[in-house]
Amino acid sequence: MIEKPGLFISFEGGEGSGKSTQIRRLEEWFRNQGRDIVVTREPGGSSGAEEIRTLLLTGDPGRWDAVTEALLMFASRRDHVERTIRPALADGKVVLCDRFADSSVAYQGYGHGLGPDYIRNLWELAIDGFKPDLTLMFDLPVEVGLARAGARFANVSAAEDRFERMGLEFHQRLRNGFREIADAEPQRCRIIDADGDIETVSERVISTVEAFIAGQGA
Ligand SMILES: Nc1ncnc2c1ncn2[C@@H]1O[C@H](COP(=O)(O)OP(=O)(O)O)[C@@H](O)[C@H]1O
Ligand SMILES: [Mg+2]
């Protein structure tokens, strides 16, 4: 606790599940309580990691093989953890992160078939297994999420949509993968039913975070 007096919350789930929308809502909620807060995202969140982000999220879906993709993710993540996340937590801030290492377990582990253990080993090697205090997993039927994400990208040029274009079966493996991760670590992970309007989902997020904080203080 001396090394990490802040609170680190990650947002996970498929494309279009509402992570970015809800992170802004939760940011507002924490600000209203007077907490210092850092909102960040992966891949990215530090200047070096943002450069790697472009390599990962643009271009042909087959641009990288699965191992290279996983290594690029952890290279960017290490930079992000060392330069952005750990310093903010050491200052006692709340860090809200749009995706973190569970996305590597889901996308490269379950989605591309490297297997969850392979990615968990990388996680250990690259960032000493550093984890969020709380992880919110946004769960939504794949078709609903991709339809939402497609609408979002319709009016954006040079879209960062490399993963969106990976096909329905890939995204179904992601959804199942996120559920398995949550089942394996119930003390850290909470599944959020993301199928509902923005206000309803926001209420689910805030009550989950309130319960977590209350349990932490006890
Ligand atoms: N609960 C919701 N119901 C309907 N549309 C939503 C909901 N939450 C977000 N959206 C819309 O769906 C799209 C994807 O949401 P976003 O928050 O960007 O998802 P993610 O970050 O998980 O990919 C956006 O256009 C957003 O406005
Ligand atoms: Mg998003």
Automatic annotation (TrEMBL):
Keyword RNA-binding: no
NCBIfam families in the cross-refs: DTMP_kinase
Identification of the protein by name: Thymidylate kinase
Keywords carried by this UniProt record: ATP-binding, Kinase, Nucleotide biosynthesis, Nucleotide-binding, Transferase
Catalysed reactions, semicolon-separated: dTMP + ATP = dTDP + ADP
Thymidylate kinase-like domain ranges (all copies): 11-204
Species assigned in the record: Thalassospira aquimaris
UniProt record similarity statement: Belongs to the thymidylate kinase family.
EC nos: 2.7.4.9
CDD domains reported in the protein's UniProt record: TMPK
Physiological role: Phosphorylation of dTMP to form dTDP in both de novo and salvage pathways of dTTP synthesis.
Signal peptide residue numbers: none
Pfam families reported in the protein's UniProt record: Thymidylate_kin (PF02223)
Residues reported in the UniProt entry to bind ATP: 13-20
